[in-house]
Amino acid sequence: MELLKVGPLIDGREVFEPGAEVREVLNPATGEVIAIQSCADEACAGRAVESSRAAFESAAWRGLSAAERGNRLIKLAEVVERNAAELIELELIDTGKPLKQLREAELPLTLALIRFYAGAADKIEGRVKSTDSGSFLLSLYEPYGVVAGILPWNYPLVNAAMKLAPALAAGNTIVLKPSVETPLSTLGLARLCAEAGIPPGVVNVVTGPGGTTGNALVRHRLVRKISFTGSTAAGRTIQKLAAESMKTVNLELGGKNAIIVFADADLERAAEAAVFSAFVNSGQLCVACSRLLVEQSVAERFEEILLSKTARVRLGDPRELSTLAGPMITRSQYDTVREYVRSAPAEGCRVVAGGGKPSLPATLERGFWVEPTIISDVRPGTRLSGEEIFGPVLTVQRFRDEAEAVALSNSVEYGLSGSVWTRDSARALRLVKALDTGIIWVNSMLNGYPQIPVPPHKLSGTGVELGIEGLMAYCQRKSAVVAYDDQAVPGWGLR
Questions:
Q1: Residue 84 to residues 78, 87, 90, 153: CA-CA distances in angstroms?
Q2: Which of 91, 252, 295, 465 is labelled catalytic?
Q3: Are the C-beta atoms of residues 394 and 373 closer than 8 Å to each other?
Q4: Which of 4, 64, 108, 212 gets the most CB atoms within 10 Å of its CB?
Q5: How far apart are CA 42 and CA 347, in angstroms?
Q6: Annotated catalytic residue within 39, 193, 286, 349
């Protein structure tokens, strides 16, 4: 294929500056270079922010009503749907994701996100309190101004929509920074904004590494809100930088999430959910339930069902509709996952499925492929039990009773998601209360988006995304006291 050339997108035009740092973009399924990326330095990032600030203050954007902003987002969803094949192709070559996953899950979710926030744009409501003091007390919500949306490499298109749509619905403008590993679909989405009637500068994109380009956005004086999705380590850095100028920060970070299966559960459905959650997107999903906690009395039978289903997870050419899982999206993550798997015997664990590189056609041999892997006999306190692997690795631990299941689930430093499988409704509700995590699926898995928020607990982050709460996170609060008694004495009554 022809090598693509991409760079920052400012005011609807791509910028290729002489002397800019250049990075290669790889197709992780094949290992081949598919694009050359021009990276934004601090000055270029600053121009993007200034462009977005000018757009925020312009009549073309500030003059739109909330309903009109919603209509532009509805139009954007229509434009995205018309250009779905192009966006899917960019995401496929950039991430190695299976075509089936992109067509049936990620593109529909992208559209659902944009349409949800389009409909919510004119639903932002303040409050009025009447008092006996001769005044009305008002609580208002306003846009921040320029928002920086810093994206991860695991779901580039979905995350771009997840930040862009609520930011614009609330009246902000946004500068997106995709991962340096996966910039293509974010740039593709931003290019479509003009066709939807979104003014130039309302959505800008800067490309480049997080440590330079991303940090330049975080530090810029005109950026008033930051939304970041990525690793906990990077989130800590961003939070520290943002604290210097008291910027509002939303962080969706790592997870080490548990799926808890009790003996009374529908074991077939629970195993299906466990396999899907652990291996969809090859485990590169912060809300994936990659820790299986199974009740001792059914553990052996459940593991047999699990192994049978895992054997049917097909890896291969992402363009084939029978392919269910793709490669690791980055070389570094590929190396990280393999190191975790190799450490299993030293931690007293058994690799009972996968663990290696699958046998694939010659065209895919240089890709970053890891077999769906199940590691049993995992003990509390080990790296495998407590650290986020972020790959197609499902660890298995056994528990004796409900109290131990809760203790094991809550023992890690993360608290993003969880799943509980039981036919006992009272037990399910007890666990919803007891588990220290942001979202819990009961006898279900990875659904409810975009209507319900995902509020992270512990080291999984701060703030909230998705749901109406995710929209309000892009609004700053303001209060006003409006007097209606013009005879009231405003101070000491001095004459």
A1: 10, 5, 10, 19
A2: 252
A3: yes
A4: 64
A5: 45
A6: 286
